[in-house]
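tokens incoming
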């Protein structure tokens, strides 16, 4: 009898402790959805007869693609002489990049998208060559986009630069664009060897008889219109 009296209270105590249905179920917070920043770059060729090489765009935290008065990097030389943007977009500082597949014709427009986890400390560069020149290029260089709000839009125009790596002879065989179909990149550099504002095209019509260019290939600044929009 004594044993039975001990067992019953202990059994009841166990049932009370395990059977309390009034406690709310435990919940676990779901993993936060990662955020993503996205910007759209719209580029328009404003020239009359200067196709622009495939447009390259990149986000990076540091560095510049060029500096006026300084020697062009090898990557910039490859772009400015032959229109190949792959080396610039492949630089170690580049975090996100995109490029059009084909040259941008005069009057034409191209859109590119860049996605990044955050825009904190991010700079945007845009680069392209005027292909009916020896080593002319244009673009935006390390533009700060870190504070752009969703829906915000910025507009810019770009100017003509000379890489200073190839003489502006305009001679047959030296221009890679459709006006000549000549050589692109050549590792040999001219003695000037510094980035500067482009002096412009001379052409046959202005007395440079050896030039393969005409007055149609002349250009005035600005070269390109760029709109940057933060999409999200």
């Amino acid at each position: 009898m004594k044993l039975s009296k001990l067992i019953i209270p202990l059994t009841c105590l166990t049932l009370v402790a395990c059977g309390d249905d009034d406690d709310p179920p435990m919940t676990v917070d779901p993993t936060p959805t990662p955020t993503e920043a996205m910007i759209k770059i719209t580029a328009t060729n404003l020239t009359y007869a200067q196709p622009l090489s495939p447009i390259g765009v990149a986000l990076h935290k540091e560095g510049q693609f060029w500096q006026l008065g300084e020697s062009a990097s090898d990557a910039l030389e490859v772009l400015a002489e032959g229109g190949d943007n792959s080396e610039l977009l492949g630089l170690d500082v580049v975090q996100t990049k995109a490029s059009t597949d084909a040259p941008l014709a005069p009057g034409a427009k191209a859109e590119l998208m860049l996605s990044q986890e955050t825009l904190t400390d991010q700079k945007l560069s845009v680069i392209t060559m005027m292909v009916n020149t020896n080593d002319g290029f244009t673009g935006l260089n390390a533009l700060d986009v870190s504070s752009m709000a969703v829906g915000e839009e910025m507009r810019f125009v770009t100017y003509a630069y000379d890489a200073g790596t190839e003489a502006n002879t305009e001679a047959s065989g030296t221009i890679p664009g459709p006006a000549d179909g000549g050589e692109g990149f050549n590792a040999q550099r001219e003695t000037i060897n510094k980035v500067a504002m482009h002096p412009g095209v001379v052409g046959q019509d202005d007395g440079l008889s050896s030039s393969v260019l005409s007055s149609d290939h002349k250009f005035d600044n600005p070269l390109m219109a760029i709109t940057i929009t933060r999409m999200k």
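note: The chain has a mean pLDDT of 89.
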